[in-house]
Write a structure and sequence with these properties.
Structural class: mainly alpha
Radius of gyration: 18 Å
Largest sheet: 2 strands, antiparallel
Distance between the termini: 41 Å
């Protein structure tokens, strides 16, 4: 695990920049909650494409099926796909986390920007990247999405895996705590789905997934120092673009 340790040391300053970012104390009113969710929903959406890229590359999705790669890595990817794409809501009904987040926005009367609907209608990454510059969206969101989808399209799989492993949203739940506590008192029915989403986020994104993701990185990079170097750079870039997304929210 020395290579993972070295990678984590290299990205520590960039993680610290997120840990100390003003976004962590930004959501203190319904207006700030709405602004955050209007931006953040794009990150909830594009995360699934990262997972699907890993599923396509690291598991067998062709017919006839044959075993592919490590069974532990297949388990990680398939478990995350299952949880993200077809989890259950607070009523036990199957739903994706993206759809759950959209429901929470609807219940809170938060407008979903029309550009999201335009993006979800794209039939290919090429079409999406061609459309993105023309959309009425903040530059920080355009940059974030461009990074995600260009990485999926162009980067080696170990770099995509590094973006997935180290650019994830494990800091998100704490950001909501102050406003969630207040809304629980003022509008408990409105906040129900958001609270459930955050609780599921914490539950399904625990240490188990992190350890499996580190194992995935070990298996993909092996003893190849060039792969580890590229993976480290991809992880750094993912944290930098996340920070610029947060900058865009606080500055809007």
């Amino acid at each position: 695990m020395n290579s993972i340790v070295d990678l984590r040391k290299a990205i520590m300053p960039y993680q610290q920049a997120l840990l100390t970012h003003p976004i962590n104390h930004y959501i203190q009113s319904p207006n700030e909650l709405a602004n955050f969710m209007q931006h953040h929903v794009f990150a909830v959406w594009d995360f699934m494409s990262l997972v699907k890229k890993l599923q396509a590359e690291l598991t067998c999705v062709a017919q006839p099926w044959v075993p592919k790669g490590s069974a532990e890595v297949r388990f990680l990817i398939n478990e995350i796909v299952l949880g993200e794409e077809s989890d259950v809501d607070q009523f036990g009904v199957h739903i994706s986390h993206f759809e759950l987040y959209m429901r929470a926005m609807h219940e809170l009367d938060i407008e979903v920007w029309p550009s999201l609907g335009q993006l979800t209608q794209c039939q290919s990454i090429e079409q999406l990247l061609a459309l993105l510059p023309s959309l009425n969206l903040p530059d920080s969101i355009k940059e974030f999405l461009t990074f995600t989808f260009e990485s999926i399209q162009q980067r080696p799989i170990e770099e995509v895996a590094a973006i997935f492993t180290f650019g994830r949203e494990d800091l998100i739940p704490g950001m909501f705590q102050l406003i969630v506590d207040q809304l629980k008192q003022d509008s408990p029915a409105k906040i129900e789905t958001l609270v459930y989403y955050l609780e599921r986020h914490i539950e399904v994104d625990g240490d188990h997934h992190s350890q499996l993701a580190y194992q995935m990185m070990e298996e993909l990079c092996g003893q190849d120092s060039n792969k580890w170097e590229r993976a480290t750079q991809a992880a750094i870039e993912s944290l930098q673009v996340r920070k610029r997304l947060w900058d865009g929210i606080v500055g809007s």
